[in-house]
Amino acid sequence: MDRKEWLKSAVFYEIYPTSFFDANGDGVGDVEGIIRKLDYIAGLGCNGIWLNPLFCSPFRDGGYDVADYKRVDPRFGTNEDLVRLFKEAKERGIRVLLDLVPGHTSDTHPWFRRSAEAARNEYSDYYIWSPNVWTDARGEGLRTVNGMCPRDGNYAVNFFSMQPALNYGYAAPTEPWQIYWRDARLLPLRREIEGVMKFWLGLGCAGFRVDMAASLVKNDADKSATCALWREMFSVVRGEYPEAVFVSEWSDPPRAVGEAGFDMDFFLHFGACEPAYMSLFRRGAESVFSRGSKGAFAPFFDTFAQMRAQLGGNGFIALPGGNHDMVPRLADGKDEAVVKAAYAFLSTLPAVPFFYYGDEIGMRYQKLDSKDGGYDRTGSRTPMRWNGGKNAGFSDAEETYLPVGEGESAESMEAREGSLLHTVRALARLRRTQPALAVSAELRVLQKEGVAVYERSGGGQRLLVAVNPNGAAVSLPFAAGKALASEGCTLEGETLAFTDAGYMIAQI
Ligand code: GLC
After folding, report:
1. 37-67: per-residue pLDDT in tens?
2. Exposed end of the chain (fewer CB within 10 Å): N or C?
3. pLDDT over 80 at 111, yes or no
4. CATH number of the domain enclosing 116
5. Does ligand 1 have an atom closer than 6 angstroms to the CB of 159?
6. Measured from the CB, is residue 211 less than 6 Å from ligand 1?
7. What is the pTM of this model?
8. Does some domain include residue 399?
């Protein structure tokens, strides 16, 4: 199926592999564990999975410090396991996206080790280096590390200090040693990264979530060189794999989709989307989705609608309920009815929903010491709570790698009528099956204060959606025909009667 067609009704599930399910009893999640839980994911109604990095790594940044792009880290299993995961997922109608980290590697990556040698070699230009240790590798916002390597130079850092920036060049070099981004000396690195994409696509992955996608070309204030670079790399990779899906961590959809050619860009908690995204779930009592809030949806809808209009039909916005970087988790500070309303919102907008593992059972943030360079993010990456058994069913080990938190399990949610898990499942199914909920269908916002009310239309269907994020008991004058799904709200003739936080999805 054409990738854009498939994305129209896609619902994704993000997995942090360390913490999903441990099949071999060593206390760490693994690929085999994900395979064993595919029926759960399919049962949830998700048809896409995004896996955080599971490649060889010293894990000083949760695997975003890659030491070998083409090999699964032994803590998770083998390449063969991953290929089996692609195959088993496909049999259940699920496509798997891997995490591509093109902007930097670990400082233990063999490319970097060679690049850091004093003598010039074929890897010398793979990373950004200043000409000697007394000069910084200058560039907009670039930090450098000095005096750590045999090479007489300072290397530029893309994120943490042990994540040296790969060299895609400078859009506007200001020093003789800065390489212009179109210089042929930089092509070998590009070919390597394209090769990584083709390698995994050839083995059956469906595409990539691309880490720090905006970071490639330096001194690129308007990002036009970075966008052109992506378009060129896409034309190479899509030439061979036209179905490959690319979703960017950029948080500027008009640019990432409209200019760089990504299929989707995440609407996130930083960058251009920050104020709008943050207003929704993670501002404590100030969040829109919070009991007693004013339900101020305008900042979100205004930015969202404006950005969506700029996509020009080239792709979509991806909207996450949370992810491995967000603190706290979606359910923190909210009761179940409010979390259900949040899921209803995520599931009914013209954006591709991404559910973060564990949020569907209301898992909470844990205050923990940092592990694997997670720092405060570590508490949003704890083991999935599967059942009431040892380690909440996550692992047979005496001690798990990350501590298992408190709370309900998937099994008890399953057994409890009216639980969040049942709601998430019903909403994901609706999303997948109702043509008017497709990401490409129209959105008409009717009310953006208090209760959000909007119309979705497409594929010969019109739906009215109302989402109450704060629990106010209100009656609203909106006529609807037949309710498809609702909680906390009933249809009474020409009015929607809310008694609690919740939602109404009705045919009109
Ligand atoms: C992205 C990842 C984050 C990582 C960083 C550096 O923001 O989501 O987890 O630490 O990039 O790769």
Report:
1. 999 999 999 999 999 999 999 999 999 999 9
2. N
3. yes
4. 3.90.400.10
5. yes
6. yes
7. 0.98
8. yes
**400 and 305 within one domain:** yes
Of 118, 138, 167, the domain-final residue: 167
Centre of ligand 1 to C-alpha 119, Å, is 32
Task: Answer whether 325 contacts ligand 1 (Cβ < 6 A).
Answer: yes
**The residue type at 223:** K
- Count how many residues are written for the chain: 508
Which residue, among 284, 269, 369, has the nearest Cα to 324 in the 3D structure?
Answer: 269
DSSP string, 183-225: -GGGHHHHHHHHHHHHHHHHHT--EEEETTGGGSSBS-TT-HH
Query: Residue 224: how many CB atoms within 10 A of its CB?
Result: 14
- What is the span of the domain harbouring residue 466? 442-507
Q: How far is the CA of 64 from the centre of ligand 1 (A)?
A: 6
Question: Residue for token digits 């880290």?
Answer: 73
- C-alpha of residue 437 to centroid of ligand 1, in Å: 31
- Whether residue 280 sits in one domain with residue 389: yes
Quickly state the pLDDT bin for 3 (edges 50, 70, 90): confident
Q: Is 295 in the pocket of ligand 1 (CB under 6 A)?
A: no
Q: Is residue 137 part of a domain?
A: yes
**Distance of CA 230 from the midpoint of ligand 1 (Å):** 19
* CATH number of domain containing 489: 2.60.40.1180
Looking at residue 241, what is its pLDDT?
Answer: 97
Interval 117-147: pLDDT, tens: 999 999 999 999 999 999 999 888 899 999 9
Total Cβ atoms within 10 A of residue 475: 14
